């Protein structure tokens, strides 16, 4: 069994159950919200119908009380309800916002129209009472016609309450049923997902992964301890685990490379920070060669800075030269390897150079360099300097990469120097001396 295929199948099943469960839960949540909305609409409709009835009752009771007693507080209460509070109008608007059916909208409109007609009668009664004609006022609001009109207002409201309540009860029951159905589906999908996970952990994982990996780990530990492990029996191990043993070596190589890359980045940051603090070409050359030497195994080096006004190079720094006087302080473009690199702008690498070429000398002896590098330092195709390095051992690939990455940083540091410091005729070459005994040619 291949882990990829099995993992794809298990993942597909898990995702299918998870997505289906998520969808079911979303639908359950939606139905639950719709159920709550239906319940809220039911209560809201009941409250608004009660407010409509309260408004209509307030109007009729206020006008009747005023005509019977002549107390002005009742007339004020009447006009307060009709002109300010307007309970009937607000209740009507709130009910129409509940997406009523045509029949339901017709009933509330009918009740509102009949209630409006009663307001006109009430206003006539108040006017008559205020003018002293109380008998006519009482006849208007206590007579049979007014009572029938009041019942005609209440009848559509009672009918609407029954019709709307029945419909909202039915909607609420349907939403509750759907919410329960989706909840049961959520539980079923969650149970299937749980069974899938348990099956993988109990049956698939130990048989095809855990036990083979344990045996592989034991073999690796034995190899690290220098022992001779017995032949590896991976049993029913997945194909990828069998391939893992081969991949371990490649992984180790990659880990080593990552470590070298991190080392290179750390050295770049450290050297760049050191260079940025310097404002003199000689000090910068000395610092760069001093920092570079232990990283690359450099035993001898020179640093030539280009004269901005001519095609020539001036020696501004060196590292571990046994006889600095033997090194030319001025090199024109095209002279020697350094001058040729300056003219062409291309590096030169020498392996096993002549014995006296930048000979490496220490207190215990002398030896020819195994490798010499002459490198241009340029920025935007503009030559800034040339450095010459001699090493006892050929540079490893990661050391070459570090040097290649450091050259642009050195160019930036040179460009950042104050122009006045680049007045080359007055520069004195600086020698970078290693912590141990200096060696050079």
Tag the structure with descriptive keywords.
Beta-Lactamase, two-stranded antiparallel ribbon, seven-stranded mixed beta sheet, 441 residues, alpha+beta, Four Helix Bundle (Hemerythrin (Met), subunit A), 66% helix, 10 helices, elongated
Task: Please bin the fraction of helical residues.
Answer: 55-70%
Provide the CATH architecture of the largest domain.
Up-down Bundle
Largest sheet report? 7 strands, mixed
Along the chain, the helix and strand elements come as HHHHHHHHEEEHEEEEEHE
**Low-pLDDT residue spans:** 435-441
CATH topology of the largest domain: Four Helix Bundle (Hemerythrin (Met), subunit A)
Question: Structural class from helices and strands?
Answer: alpha+beta
CATH class of the largest domain: Mainly Alpha
| Spatial gap, N to C terminus | 66 Å
Mean pLDDT: 81
């Amino acid at each position: 069994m291949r882990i990829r295929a099995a993992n794809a199948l298990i993942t597909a099943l898990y995702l299918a159950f998870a997505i289906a469960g998520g969808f079911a839960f979303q639908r359950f949540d939606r139905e639950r919200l719709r159920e709550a909305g239906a319940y809220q609409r039911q209560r809201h409709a009941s409250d608004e119908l009660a407010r409509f009835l309260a408004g209509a009752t307030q109007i009729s009771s206020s006008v009747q009380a005023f005509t019977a007693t002549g107390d002005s507080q009742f007339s004020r209460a009447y006009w307060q309800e009709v002109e300010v509070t307007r309970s009937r109008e607000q209740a009507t608007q709130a009910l129409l916002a509940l997406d009523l059916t045509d029949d339901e909208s017709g009933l509330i409109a009918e009740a509102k129209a009949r209630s409006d007609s009663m307001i006109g009668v009430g206003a006539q009664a108040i006017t008559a009472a205020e003018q002293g004609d109380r008998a006519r006022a009482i006849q208007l609001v206590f007579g049979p016609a007014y009572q029938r009109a009041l019942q005609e207002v209440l009848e559509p409201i009672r009918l609407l309450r029954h019709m709307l309540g029945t419909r909202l009860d039915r909607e609420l029951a349907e939403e509750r049923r759907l919410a329960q159905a989706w909840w049961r589906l959520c539980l079923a999908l969650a149970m299937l997902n749980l069974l899938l996970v348990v099956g993988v952990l109990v049956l698939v994982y130990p048989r095809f992964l855990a036990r083979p990996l344990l045996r592989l780990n034991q073999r690796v530990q034995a190899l690290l301890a220098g022992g001779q492990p017995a032949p590896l029996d991976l049993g029913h191990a997945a194909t990828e685990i069998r391939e893992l043993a081969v991949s371990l070596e490649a992984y180790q190589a990659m880990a080593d490379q990552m470590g070298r890359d991190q080392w290179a980045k750390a050295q770049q940051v450290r050297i760049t920070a050191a260079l940025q603090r310097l404002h003199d070409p000689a000090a910068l050359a000395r610092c760069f060669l001093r920092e570079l030497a232990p990283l690359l195994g450099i035993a001898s080096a020179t640093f030539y800075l280009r004269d901005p006004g001519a095609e020539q190079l001036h020696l501004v720094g060196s590292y571990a030269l046994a006889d600095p006087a033997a090194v030319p302080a001025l090199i024109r473009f095209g002279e020697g390897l350094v001058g040729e690199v300056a003219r062409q702008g291309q590096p030169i690498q020498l392996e096993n150079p002549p014995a006296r070429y930048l000979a490496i000398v220490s207190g215990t002896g002398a030896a020819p360099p195994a490798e010499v590098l002459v490198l241009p330092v340029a920025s935007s195709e503009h030559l800034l300097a040339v450095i010459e390095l001699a090493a006892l051992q050929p540079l490893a690939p990661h050391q070459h990469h570090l040097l290649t990455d450091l050259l642009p940083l050195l160019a930036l540091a040179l460009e950042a120097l104050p122009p006045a410091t680049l007045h080359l005729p007055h520069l004195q070459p600086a020698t970078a001396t290693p912590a141990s005994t200096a060696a050079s040619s």
